[in-house]
Amino acid sequence: MENLLEVRNLKKSFGKLCVLEDISFNVEKGKVVAIIGPSGSGKSTLLRCLTQLERADSGEVTVCGEEMLTKDGYRDAKTLREIRLKTGLVFQNFNLFPHFSVLRNITEAPVRVLKRGKAEAKQNAMELLKKMGLETKADSYPCELSGGQQQRVAIARALATDPEIIYFDEPTSALDPELTGEVLSVMRKLAEEGMTMLVVTHEMGFARNVSSKTVFMENGVVVEQAPSQQFFASPKEERTRAFLRRIAHTE
Ligand code: ADP
Ligand code: MG
Questions:
Q1: Ligand number nearest to the C-alpha of 40
Q2: Which residues of the chain have pLDDT under 50?
Q3: Which of 117, 188, 197, 216 is most solvent-facing, going by the fewest CB within 10 Å?
């Protein structure tokens, strides 16, 4: 099976603070991989390194068959840009442009970055909004939408550039509990359509039932990774079992 993401021995420190000590895992094409772990374990930093918002110190990263970071360092700017265009990112706090309409939020990157025609970008955006159940919200502004609606717009925006892989950083953790379901259900739909996704999440039900593999991170290392059914049915490491017990008590 082809890997769309390969991460080997990734390391990242902020000054003296070592946040990613040694991270290795793969994401196969068409699969969903969940990353779970306590707050402060480096999950957001990992996604920020993989999406080039942050520079890792060392390691090897290959995205869609293209080396991004090698033993000799980062590739040239042109290659890095090409890789960036193949990936999408959905943040915890939506990060929509507040002064743009929903439609413009979605068409901005296709028009400005990919130089697509406005009419084509608009038509594609309307199709994405329909898929997200938001076709009536095209002319609204982000502040007029609920958190769940804003996050679905953010997912439509990430899809608008036709990425091969989408990264999600705790996409439901800023939402009221009654709104998480609508976001998880569009993510489940994307998974069923074969979208490749790497999802940092606290939603154990999503990790267990939608992702094919779960990676447990703690203190900058991968403690355990396994096919999700197996991971939750019989975690091997005591640290994994302790984390799952803690999570079960707080839910
Ligand atoms: P998680 O997403 O798992 O909660 P983070 O990746 O956000 O973890 O943070 C891991 C650690 O890195 C934390 O101790 C955090 O304070 C630190 N950290 C994150 N970003 C920075 C930064 N830009 N500068 C310094 N420390 C940072
Ligand atoms: Mg985080």
A1: 1
A2: none
A3: 117
**Residue to mutate (ligand 1; options 16, 39, 44; most atoms within 8 A of CB):** 44
Q: Cβ(215)–Cβ(243) under 8 Å?
A: no
Residue list, CB under 5 A from ion ligand 2: 43-44
Burial class (CB in 10 A: 0-12, 13-18, 19+), 80: middle
Model pLDDT, residue 248:
83
In angstroms, rounded to a whole number, what is the distance separating the alpha carbons of residues 80 and 90?
Answer: 19
Q: Tokens at residue 43, please?
A: 């999950």
Distance 207 CA to ligand 2 centre (A): 16
Pick the ligand that lies closest to the CA of residue 12. Answer: 1
Euclidean distance between CA atoms 169 and 173, whole angstroms: 9
Q: 24-28: which pairs have CB atoms within 8 A and are 24 or more residues apart? A: 24/222, 25/213, 25/215, 25/222, 25/225, 27/3, 27/165, 27/196, 27/198, 27/213, 28/1, 28/2, 28/3, 28/4, 28/196, 28/212
Q: Which residues contact 139 (CB under 8 A, 6 or more apart)?
A: 101, 102, 103
User: From ligand 1's centre to the CA of 112, what distance in Å?
Assistant: 31
Pinpoint the alpha helices (H) of the chain.
Answer: 43-50, 77-85, 102-112, 118-131, 147-159, 177-192, 204-209, 228-233, 238-250
Residue 179 CB neighbours (<10 A) = 18
Atom of ligand 1 lying closest to residue 46 CA: 6
Q: What is the pLDDT of residue 251?
A: 62
